[in-house]
Amino acid sequence: MEQEVISMPRIGDPAPAFEAITTQGPIKFPEDFYGSWVILFSHPADFTPVCTSEFITFASLESEFASLNCKLVGLSVDGLYSHIAWLRTIKEKIEFKGMKNVEVKFPLIEDITMKVAHKYGMIQPGESSTKAVRAVFVIDPSGKIRTIIYYPLSLGRNFDELKRVVMALQTADMFNVATPADWKPGDDVIVPTAGSCGVAKDRMEGKESNITCHDWFFCTKPLTKDEVMKKIQK
Fold first, then answer.
1. Exposure pattern of 183-219 as b/e (b: 16+ CB <10 Å)?
2. What is the Cα–Cα distance from 174 to 169, expressed in whole angstroms?
3. H/E run at residue 76
4. Residue closest to 29 by CA, chosen among 85, 86, 108, 105
5. Which residues are marked as active site?
6. Are 113 and 125 contacting, i.e. CB atoms less than 8 angstroms apart?
């Protein structure tokens, strides 16, 4: 029996383009979102508990993502009327971690044909042939995919981490640095590795100010939270 091959975009690829109906009207993606960062995320099905907890959390954090020039776009393989009914139920009946009366204002894509889900490799036969896994694509203002995270159906996402990813990507772009393990705004950042023996020697001899070198290839510098947030927050 021939095994199904799942195609999915890679980090650095242009986000696959599509047109879709959503709970906020039709969209052209990523065209309508150029100039903003985007988190495109999928969920397995409407009226499911893990997805419900995630949508309440995303909606509650939408303004925080907006302050980072980041928009949210959801997707599942359910139809538009199911989406509308589910989001109304969330607002009228569901409370999660003290969050209640939450209105989901970002678009939720109808994908009953699974066209978009297949374009993004969101259907994983090992999990389900009819439900999208919990995929997250972070897409930059030029429409390029910068981060891909996949979760199994049973695992809810960590939203502090998703916000941290957006901030870290923006910081790397703005300051030409990399961010180390567990980085958060205010922590030291990693400067680009020395590109020549001369630069490596100068760094190890402390000739470059404001840089701490643990070895020639691993050098860090301070970057305050204020400096970061002034650059990345709207």
1. bebebbbbbeebeeeebbebbeeeebeeeebeeeeeb
2. 9
3. strand 70-76
4. 108
5. 51
6. no
Q: Which of 88, 159, 91, 148 lies closest to 124 in space, CA to CA?
A: 148
CB 96: neighbour CB atoms within 10 A? 16
Half-sphere exposure of 37 (CA within 13 A, CB side): 26
Tell me, what amino acid is at 181? Answer: A
List pLDDT tens digits, range 60-78: 999 999 999 999 999 988 9
- 83 pLDDT exceeds 60? yes
pLDDT in tens, 149-192: 999 888 999 999 999 999 999 999 999 999 999 999 999 999 98
Tell me the CB-side half-sphere exposure of residue 84, using CA atoms within 13 A: 8
Helix (H) or strand (E) holding 201: helix 197-204
Tell me if residue 136 falls in helix, strand or coil: strand
Answer for the pair 188, 197: CB distance below 8 angstroms, yes or no.
no
Cite the DSSP H helix spans in 14-152: 49-67, 80-93, 115-119
CA angle in degrees (0–180, nearest 5) for 231-178-196: 120
DSSP annotation of 190: E
Rg (the chain; Cα; Å): 20
Q: Tokens for 168?
A: 């870290």
Q: Which of 227, 222, 223 is nearest to 212 (CA)?
A: 222
pLDDT digits (tens, 9 = 90+) for 182-198: 999 999 999 988 767 77
User: Which neighbouring-strand residues pair with 42?
Assistant: 75
